[in-house]
Each structure stands twice: as C-alpha cells, then as structure tokens.
Specification:
- The structure is a homodimer of 189-residue chains.
- The first copy, chain A, is mostly helical.
- Chain A folds into two domains: 1-46, Homeodomain-like (Arc Repressor Mutant, subunit A); 50-185, Tetracycline Repressor, domain 2, CATH 1.10.357.
- Helix content of chain A is 76%, strand content 0%.
- Chain A has nine helices and no strands.
- The first copy, chain A, has helices at residues 5-20, 27-34, 38-44, 48-73, 78-94, 102-108, 115-137, 143-163, 168-185.
- In chain A, α5 (78-94) packs antiparallel against α7 (115-137).
- The longest helix of chain A is centred in the first third of the chain and has 26 residues, at 48-73.
- The termini of chain A are far apart.
- Chain A binds chain B through residues 20-21, 23-24, 99-100, 104-105, 107-109, 111-112, 117, 120-121, 124-125, 144-145, 148-149, 151-157, 159-160, 162-164, 168-169, 172-173, 175-176, 179-180, 183, and chain B through 20-21, 23-24, 99-100, 104-105, 107-109, 111-112, 117, 120-121, 124-125, 144-145, 148-149, 151-157, 159-160, 162-164, 168-169, 172-173, 175-176, 179-180, 183.
- The structure holds a DNA duplex (30 and 30 nucleotides).
Chain lengths: 189, 189
DNA sequence: ACGCTAGCAGACAGTTCTGTCTACCACCAC
DNA sequence: GTGGTGGTAGACAGAACTGTCTGCTAGCGT
C-alpha cells in the first residue's frame, strides 16, 4: 500500500506492456498482477488507453535518461557524445527481456490516427531535436540531416536488437555513426 | 470463384493484416470481406497463425521484388545499386496506406518464441545476405559490416516512414547510405 | 462522532475472438 | 447416377476482452 495503488498499477503495466505489447495484455491481468482492485484501476485510468499513454510517458523518461547518460559518459567532445549514444543501445539490447523500442512496438499495433501513434511521433521528434542540438554543437554542416541519419540508425539498431540477438548489429550501428559524424563534421577527430 | 478461395482469402488478409496488424484483424472480418465460408478458410489455414505466415511469405516476395527492381534500375555499378535500394524505401513510404515494415510490425506483437518471430528473423537474414553479396561485388572492405549497416538504415527508414510522413527521412537514409558505401569501398566514385 | 477519501473484492453486461460443427449445394469424372 | 471435391451459410462453444456497478473496509482530519 505504501507506494500507492497508482504506482503499483504503472509498475505492473510497464513490465507487462513492454513484454507483450499493450494489446497483448488484458486489464484483468494487470489487476491480478498488481493486486489492485479493478475499480481502483479505472479510477486512475478511465480507459485502457490512458494507462498505455502513462506507460509510454514512463518509457520516454527512462529511455531519454539512458541516452543522456550515454552521451555524458562518452566525454566532452560533442562528436564523441553523438557516437556514444549507441552505447545506450548496446546496453539496452543486452538486457534480459529486451523487446525492442516500446514506442515502435506500440505504434505498430495502432492506427495512425490514435493518441498512441501521436505520442510516438512526438517522442521521436523530441529525441531527434535533442540529437540535432548535439550535432549543431559538434559543428555538423547540416545538423538536421545528421540528426535524422543518426536517429534512423538508432531506430534500426533498436529493432534489430530484438530480431537478431547478434550484438554485431548495435556495434555496426556505432561504427556507422562514427563514419557519418566524421563525414558531417569534416574529417576525423 | 475463378481465382479460387485460397487466393481470395490471401488477398483479403494481405490488405487487412497490413493495415491493422494480424492481431488487429479477426477471422470473422476476413471471412466477411473475402466472401468465403468460414469452414473454407479453416480448411486452407487450420490456424490463424498459418494464415499470418502465408501473409508474411507474400510480403517477403513483394518487398524483395521491389528491392531487386530498385537495385536493377540504379545501374551497373554495385555501389550505385546499394544506394539505389533506398529508392524502394522512398517509393514505399510515398504509397497510400503505407504502414511500415510488415515483418517488424508483426514481430512487435508476438513473443520471441513464435513462428512469426522466426519468420521475421529469417526474412531479415535473407535480405542482409543478399545485400552482403552486393557489398562484396562493390568491393567493400568488410561486406558483412556494410550490409549490416545498410540494413539497419533500411529498417530505420521503413519505420520512420510511418511515424513521420516527412520524406526527408528516406532521403536522409539514402544520403547516409552513399556515405557508408563510399567509406567502405575507399573513396567516392 | 462524522464524513471523506482511497482502496478491496468480485459479479456482471456486452462484445469479440478463435475454432468446430452441421447441413446443404454444384460440379465433374467415371 | 454416384461419389468425391470444394465451396456456402451460419449456428455454436468457450474463452477473453473492456468497462460498470454494488458493497464493504480502513484511515484520517475535524
């Protein structure tokens, strides 16, 4: 009880939604697993979609935090930070129960007109804007282009990480990122 | 009747599965839409999963055909062909009703131990092997690495194409491909 | 003592899903 | 004409789904 019903629901939903996809988990399962009453769940999240959106918000926080940490760890040079982003991917793919990008997975099972889809687009746009800022500070000739290319690689690597357990995927992405950053900033460093 | 019930079922399933994801389409819907009797559907495809796999096989044929056509159109030089692959992505993303990579979408809503997941892994491996052969003929220092990087970009671009209608995504992927191919084959051409 | 808030427990309605089954029909080979 | 093949039409069972509702309990501020 101490952590409050809302947190328990979100914790449970986080694990189940990520493992099986929002559509693959019934409300009853979340109720049973979290030990919360059904009425309580529907008080906090009137519709299942509200719970899904709260789940995605949490994923956004966690994943963005990991990206920031990876960049911070990579060093002072923004170019190193851009490449360092892919350490977050490498680490994520190695994690037990890794199942790809939660946003991509969630969007894959919804129509393009839904809130879930919109939230996914928004998340990707925010990440790309942040990468573009790094690219600008790295002195890229076209920061928007470089950010676009790196986030494409990012999404590709996140997807490949679940399809193909081979860690060569994330490593290949990292090396590709280095090549693209070098090309965009005019030479190696 | 002329085209046979099996084809009618597959045609209908192809459209519906791609638009809403296999899990988002009930067997009843396919029955109604294809004008086929339920018993007939279950005679040809004893389980829904069998129909999903047949759907994926058809997607594989179609998409691989488009990749091959894009490479062929790009010219004689294997390096041009590697870059030309991304024309297939550009064209796919522009198509009305584009909804991303059918394999990635299908895999996103299944467990990793399922047939659907395995078929997806297989498809991606076949495409990558084919790209690796192109990379070898293009004289890449490490064809496996280049193929890995290009297919990462491919998957990233296919995913971005549905999340973000901006055609800059596929174009960015194309330009990144050119950079990576140049780097791997030692200089521009 | 009183009322308010938060929560638990579980029945319930109504829909939708997969998969099975019965009954009938049309054609074609022999 | 007779039997096999492939198809239609639709009822049906059994499960799972979302969302609602009733009743009960415990704590807490005043």
């Amino acid at each position: 009880m101490a952590p409050g019903a809302r947190e328990r629901i979100l914790d449970t939903a986080f694990g189940l939604f990520y493992a099986h996809g929002p559509r693959g988990v019934g409300v009853d399962t979340i109720v049973a697993e979290s030990g919360v009453a059904k009425a309580t769940l529907y008080k906090h999240f009137p519709r299942k979609d509200d719970l899904v959106l709260a789940y995605l918000d949490r994923v956004d926080q966690v994943w963005f935090g990991q990206l920031r940490a990876a960049a911070r760890t990579a060093g002072e040079d923004p170019r190193d930070q851009l490449v360092g982003l892919f350490d977050a991917v490498v680490r994520a793919c190695r994690r037990e129960g890794y199942h790809g990008c939660a946003f991509i997975n969630a969007a894959a099972e919804t129509d393009t007109a839904t809130d879930v889809h919109a939230r996914t687009v928004e998340h990707k746009a925010v990440v790309r804007a942040w990468v573009a800022d790094l690219a600008r500070r790295a002195g890229a000739a076209d920061p928007q282009l470089l950010a676009r290319q790196l986030t494409l690689l990012l999404d590709g690597a996140l997807t490949a990480g679940v399809l193909d357990a081979d860690p060569a995927a994330a490593d290949g992405a990292r090396r590709a990122a280095r090549t693209l950053v070098a090309e965009a900033t005019g030479g190696t460093w």
